[in-house]
């Protein structure tokens, strides 16, 4: 296995913030739902009322895993769905900190940088492009397939795909349940990014991603 140290970043809520405070408050979620209704109208030849009803049923049964619901119930290709429903310009919804690129460029000299997100690739790439950091990452892991953070198998997949020992990885994320706990389970170092709460689970807590270097130094990584 390779032993060059690796920094793994969650995307939404970690490398950037949403305008409005959260994914749902930003308007992105609402836009995805509207696009999904239009997609159902087109793909299943339904009227708008029927499409709303179908989407409501899927949300009740599958939660935010809409792609899986459409695939299982209607044999709809999830990648086609993602590339339509998530065809959204990121600029309108995200907050951009120009200091981020400078920090990551510096880190890239000594570490391999990875992005992991349960969002589809089309959204990830648009966000990274808007943040002007799309060329800084060795690998991007998206949530289009059946390997996702919410399923608890994403960090194991990183170890497998990149052939790296977990102790050479440090994970930065804003959610304990999907970022910190599963990463620690496979033996990775972890840093929670949270302005208000200090984690008792993560190895370290920072208030913003601008404190990356502080965390790395503290953990002697």
UniProtKB/TrEMBL annotation:
Molecular function terms, GO-annotated: metal ion binding; phosphatase activity
Family annotation (Pfam families): Hydrolase
Keywords from the UniProt entry: Hydrolase, Magnesium, Metal-binding
The protein's name in its UniProt record: HAD family hydrolase
């Amino acid at each position: 296995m390779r032993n060059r140290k690796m920094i793994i970043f969650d995307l939404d809520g970690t490398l950037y913030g949403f305008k409005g405070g959260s994914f749902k408050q930003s308007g992105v979620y609402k836009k995805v739902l509207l696009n999904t209704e239009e997609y159902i109208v087109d793909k299943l030849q339904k009227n708008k009322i029927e499409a709303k009803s179908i989407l409501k049923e899927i949300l009740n049964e599958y939660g935010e895993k809409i792609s899986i619901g459409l695939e299982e119930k209607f044999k709809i290709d999830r990648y086609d769905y993602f590339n339509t429903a998530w065809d959204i310009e990121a600029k309108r919804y995200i907050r951009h900190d120009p200091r981020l690129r400078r920090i990551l460029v510096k880190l890239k000299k000594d570490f391999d940088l990875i992005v992991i997100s349960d969002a589809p690739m089309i959204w990830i790439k648009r966000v990274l492009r808007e943040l002007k950091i799309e060329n800084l990452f060795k690998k991007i892991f998206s949530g289009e397939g059946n390997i996702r953070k919410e399923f608890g198998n994403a960090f194991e997949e990183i170890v497998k795909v990149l052939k790296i020992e977990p102790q050479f990885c440090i994970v930065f994320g804003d959610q304990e349940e999907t970022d910190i706990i599963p990463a620690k389970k496979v033996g990775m170092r972890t840093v929670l990014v949270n302005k208000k709460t200090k984690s008792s689970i993560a190895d370290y807590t920072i208030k913003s991603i601008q404190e990356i270097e502080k965390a790395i130094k503290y953990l002697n990584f």
